[in-house]
Specification:
The structure is a single chain. This protein has about 160 residues and is of the alpha+beta class. It has two domains: about 55 residues, no CATH class; about 80 residues, 3-Layer(aba) Sandwich (Glutaredoxin), CATH 3.40.30.10. The protein is built from seven helices and four strands. A four-stranded mixed beta sheet has the order 2-1-3-4, with helices on one face. Strand 3 and strand 4 form a beta hairpin. Helix 1 packs antiparallel against helix 2, helix 3 packs across helix 4 and helix 6 runs parallel beside helix 7. The longest helix has 14 residues. The chain is elongated, with a radius of gyration of 19 Å. It binds FE2/S2 (inorganic) cluster. The site of FE2/S2 (inorganic) cluster (FES) has 12 residues, from helix 5.
Length: about 160
């Protein structure tokens, strides 16, 4: 995937070239693109005078950096203590199957969903809780979670191969 060079230049121009600014620039890059594309990492390294291998070491060390594009819809399921005892792990397992996540993948192959586990959203009284993009769903069970995902799939036309929306 190629990234818009102009947007990258805008980000890098905010910083005086110096290794100490690499992490801040990478945070800006992630905010702009929602992940750190390889070309962007390399451009940031070149700009800051850091070797590309050092740059890779930085982005793989800090968990806050994402190296693959996220899905179009973000599902965060709370697996904090209260939600866990209310069976949030069943919701996680069901949704992984529903959106077709394999192994350690967090994003579905069709690019529609990224699923992450979260530790306490401060809504324990509503647990299990899932955040679907900007909305919170509480008192969740696997069936309701699948319904929420199916509604998004339908909206995206995924059920019928229809890309209209
Ligand atoms: S433990 Fe899930 S919201 Fe607090």
């Amino acid at each position: 995937m190629s990234i818009p060079v102009g947007r990258m230049d805008d980000i890098l121009e905010r910083y005086t070239p110096s290794p100490e600014h690499l992490i801040s620039a990478l945070q800006d890059i992630q905010e702009e693109f929602h992940y750190v594309p390889k070309e962007a990492l390399e451009a940031a390294c070149d700009h800051m005078g850091v070797s590309r291998s050092q740059g890779w070491a930085v982005v793989t060390f800090y968990k806050l950096f994402r190296l693959t594009p996220p899905g179009k819809h973000h599902l965060s399921i709370c697996t904090g203590t209260t939600c866990y005892v209310n069976h949030s792990s069943k919701v996680v397992d069901t949704l992984k199957e529903e959106i077709g996540l394999n192994g350690g993948d967090d994003t579905s192959k069709d690019g529609l969903f990224t699923l992450e586990e979260f530790h306490c959203m401060g809504l324990c009284h509503m647990g299990p809780v899932m955040k679907v993009d900007d909305d919170y769903l509480g008192r969740l069970d696997p069936e309701r979670a699948v319904e929420a995902v199916d509604a998004l799939k339908e909206k995206e036309g995924a059920h019928h191969g229809n890309k209209e929306d």
